[in-house]
Amino acid sequence: MFELPPLPYAYDTLEPYIDARTMEIHYAKHHQGYIDKLNTALKDYPGLQNKSIEELLSNLNEIPEKIRDQVRNQGGGHHNHSLFWKIMGHRKTATPTGSILTTVENSFGSFEEFKMKFTEVAINHFGSGWAWLVADSSNNLIIRSTSNQDSPISEKQKPILELDLWEHAYYLKYQNKRAEYIDAWWNVVNWEAVEQNMA
Ligand code: MN3
């Protein structure tokens, strides 16, 4: 059965940009909730319980139709949040350096250009979902968003950087002001973790 992975830092580590209360509810309640519901969906499918979350989401067509939506939504919720915690943390560098910076510059012109485009996609995404930097199968970098808890890995894209756009990620501190949340979030991106995702 799937379990909540440890949060790699304390609830208040991302203060003041992301507040401790939001982190606690988001991690201990929302993420745990996706895992509980995923486990419930897989209860009668021991063959699927042995698969990794990546395997399940990469092959949604092979999931029995009866639980496919649950695996897509709850499994996606589990996987997306697991990735999201990792790409945040105490920031060591204000902007990416080294190979990730070069790759971003090659794909988007400059880091500022990349940041602007990603922010625009995140602000303009309608409703709940995620903003992403992904690599496609030819290793092209793409900025996109997905709805609900849909994962790019279901479309053979590799997640590199992601931002939770659900109101539960920011409502306590920012209410309806998604743009302010996004602006603050750039301060807690852990570029070393993002670079590892790119490798
Ligand atoms: Mn969330």
UniProtKB/TrEMBL annotation:
It comes from Candidatus Magasanikbacteria bacterium GW2011_GWA2_42_32. The lineage of its organism: Bacteria, Candidatus Magasanikiibacteriota. Its EC number is 1.15.1.1. This is Superoxide dismutase. It catalyses: 2 superoxide + 2 H(+) = H2O2 + O2. Keywords: Metal-binding, Oxidoreductase. Pfam families: Sod_Fe_C, Sod_Fe_N. Mn(2+) binds at H26, H81, D164, H168. GO terms for cellular component: cytoplasm. Belongs to the iron/manganese superoxide dismutase family. InterPro entries: Mn/Fe_SOD (IPR001189), Mn/Fe_SOD_BS (IPR019833), Mn/Fe_SOD_C (IPR019832), Mn/Fe_SOD_N (IPR019831), Mn/Fe_SOD_N_sf (IPR036324), SOD_C_sf (IPR036314). Destroys radicals which are normally produced within the cells and which are toxic to biological systems. Residues 96-197 form the Manganese/iron superoxide dismutase C-terminal domain. PANTHER family: 37S RIBOSOMAL PROTEIN S26, MITOCHONDRIAL (PTHR43595), SMALL RIBOSOMAL SUBUNIT PROTEIN MS42 (PTHR43595:SF2). Residues 2-88 form the Manganese/iron superoxide dismutase N-terminal domain.
